[in-house]
Fold this sequence. Notes:
Helix content: 25-40%
Low-confidence stretches: 1-7
Order of helices and strands: HEEEEHHHEEHEEEEEEEH
Number of helices: 6
Distance between the termini: 31 Å
Mean pLDDT: 89
Amino acid sequence: MPLSARPLLAQVSPEQAVAAMVKNEIAAHQPNSGRDAFRFLEYERSARTGGHLWKEEDVQVDGGLMRRLLAVDGKPIPDVQATAVEERLEWLARNPAAFQRLNRAHNSDESQTLKLLADLPHEFLFTPDGEEGGCTRIAFRPDPAYRPHSFEDRAIHAMAGTVRIDESMMRLCGMQAHLTHTVEFGYGLLGKLNQGGSLSIERQHVTPADWKTTRVKLNFSGELLFFKSLSRQQQTVRTNLQPVPRNLTLEQAIPLTRP
Length: 259
């Protein structure tokens, strides 16, 4: 069932609009939400790709993404490597625990994004900030009255930026945020995140009930325990989103990854 729409922002406060959007986004990510699964082309440059630009055909399944590497830095992979990729996908299908381990980082990123959204109504102050791309833009900044309860809360509460909301469905169109100051953990002994770290998320309405993330950009730096350097640089673009049957097995997903 499509998620319920809410009144236009002219009839509600920015706080109410953000709360309604967050409620809808969290509901859409529940296992029983009835949302569709998708296949898509993904272009990513990150630590996972060793800093190279990977082009992959991805298929959503329970537990993550079945990914087929197609090209590196704009060049199709050679036949020998393509054969190895096919064999690896077949091995993953026979070893679901390995598939789950491979997808931990991806699933963690999705969980962190949902947590950031869930924390918005409680940790931030909001002001209207115009429109962009047919969506209502709302600026957010840390609420000085809020007291973070954990290291993770402190990092989230140090962010400011904007969210863009589709008023007709109260769904997230996009988000831009940055760290307003350096966040130290354990008075700097356990680590820190440097001021200026940023994230950007773009989303697209792809079916009557489904919105998908089409662009992600992360740029964070700092130091972790015992001054070990931290660098999180990622750029991801997803195109050609197409629905696929729900509850695909890993074996069933493999043919759908073939271009």
